[in-house]
Design a protein that fits this description.
The structure is a single chain. α4 runs parallel beside α5 (168-176). This protein is α/β, with parallel strands linked by helices and 310 residues long. The protein has one domain (2-309): Ribokinase (UDP-N-acetylmuramoyl-L-alanine:D-glutamate ligase), CATH 3.40.1190.20. α2 (64-73) links the parallel β4 and β5. 37% of the residues lie in helices and 25% in strands. A 10-stranded mixed β-sheet has the order 5-4-1-8-9-10-11-12-13-14, sandwiched between helices. The two termini are 33 Å apart.
Length: 310
């Protein structure tokens, strides 16, 4: 079973506008809102790729029915715990004339400590040997920033593979527990070393330090420039296929991680895992809603991904 952990849920709201600066008030805009969060995006893509996935998470009571209905729509198994507070709102604005996309992300309300303890105990009870757990997204206010690291250590003690996709201190603490794989983007990767990292060779040198520490698989996503993937003595540069008529870049990292985890679950070779992950990220650019990918697109793009040794 693949399991996704949702600590920081959000309601995503998307708008399209002609252009900022030409007017200050926009009325009658079409909008779309739906439950989101990196773990939900990941779970959607895993399910569409054909693997069973269960999402465990904490959601404010005022929105939990909306989240359950959304997950049911995608036939994603779920075990959501009610908490107090309100759900954060993330607003995405597409400026049609310039092609610029604006992201406005709000903070969540603090989580009560007893709610944190209850949820983490529930997670411990779910841990079973042979599962693959994905920890993705930010940590809400009130949480211990070392929580990912603690859970990864507990998973490893029970022979559970783990994937980590976060940023800042939660990512640093999580890496210290040596997850099976991590997939930072270029900005998150540089933040780990508190320095500008320029050029492929510089990236590889720093990446090898993480592998030497005990991380098994490392994927550094570089957007349109592809992915640097490392495992053992292998270092691969994975170039994405050309994708025409792209409509969205939100969720590409989540789709990438889903493709990688599914590939590992199916026993793919390292190169084939890379192809599936990159193809899943590319397929995401064709969807208006994050990670509502099409399996046929993924299969098509897998044949187009270029993988070469560095």
């Amino acid at each position: 079973m693949i399991r996704a952990i949702l600590y920081n849920p959000t309601i995503d709201v998307h708008y399209k506008i002609p252009r900022f600066g030409e007017q200050t008030t926009f009325t009658g805009l079409k909008s779309k809102s739906f439950p989101a969060g990196k773990a939900i995006n990941f779970a959607k893509a895993v399910k569409i790729l054909g693997e069973d996935v269960e999402l465990s998470g904490i959601v404010p009571a005022c929105d939990i029915l909306k989240f359950r209905a959304f997950l049911d729509e995608y036939e994603i198994q779920h075990d959501l715990s009610e908490i107090s507070g309100t759900t954060r709102i993330n607003t995405t604005i597409f400026e049609e004339k310039s092609g610029i996309i604006y992201h406005l992300n709000s903070e969540n309300s603090a989580v009560v400590n007893s709610e944190i303890i209850d949820f983490n105990e529930k997670l411990s009870d779910k841990m079973q040997e042979g599962d693959f757990w994905a920890f993705s997204g930010s940590i809400p206010t009130g949480f211990d920033e070392e929580i990912y690291g603690k859970l990864i250590s507990e998973c490893k003690s029970k022979n559970i593979k783990t994937a980590l996709d976060s940023r800042s201190n939660p990512l640093k603490h999580g890496i210290s527990a040596l997850p099976f794989l991590i997939s930072p983007n270029e900005e998150e990767f540089m933040d780990l070393f508190s320095e500008d990292i320029k050029g492929l060779q510089h990236i590889v040198l720093r990446a090898k330090r993480l592998l030497d520490s005990g991380v098994e698989y490392l994927f550094i996503t570089l957007g349109k420039d592809g992915v640097v993937a490392l495992h053992g003595d292998e270092c691969l540069l994975c170039s994405p296929p050309e994708v025409k008529n792209q409509v969205n870049a939100v969720g590409c990292g989540d789709a990438f991680l889903a493709g990688a985890v599914v590939g590992f679950q199916r026993g793919f070779s390292f190169k084939e895992v890379c192809r599936m992950a990159v193809a899943s990220g590319a397929a995401n650019t064709l969807t208006n809603e994050p990670c509502k990918i099409v399996g046929e697109h993924v299969r098509f793009f897998m044949e187009k991904v270029k993988v070469e040794s560095v």
